[in-house]
Amino acid sequence: MCSGRGGGARVDHRFPAALLGLERGTPLFVFDRTTWLLDQPITHVRMLHPPGYRMVSRF
């Protein structure tokens, strides 16, 4: 899928880069999110975004 944790992730040989239209070694924005209900995790998702992606949060 990708190499690295906490930034610096890049597409590697185990992830079909063609699914994102990327070359092997292209930097990715990797975002892991877990949703909790009290003390139990109920969902977990890993999102991979190509260069140029911009994340905006509003609370």
Any overview of this molecule?
Strands 1-2 form a two-stranded antiparallel ribbon. It has one domain (2-49). It is an all-beta fold and 59 residues long. The mean pLDDT is 77. β1 (2-3) and β2 (10-11) form a beta hairpin. The radius of gyration is 14 Å and the shape is flat. The chain has strands spanning 2-3, 10-11, 29-37, 40-49.
Instruction: Name the helicity range.
Output: under 10%
Order of helices and strands: EEEE
Task: State which percent range the strand residues make up.
Answer: 35-45%
Arithmetic mean pLDDT:
77
According to DSSP, the number of beta strands is 4
Q: How many structural domains does the protein architecture include?
A: 1
Helical stretch tally: 0
Shape: flat
End-to-end gap: 31 Å
Secondary structure class reads mainly beta
Oligomer: single chain
Short recap of the structure:
This protein is an all-beta fold.
Task: Give structural attributes.
59 residues, mainly beta, flat
Secondary structure elements and their pairing?
Layout: E1 2-3, E2 10-11, E3 29-37, E4 40-49
Antiparallel strand pairs: 1-2, 3-4
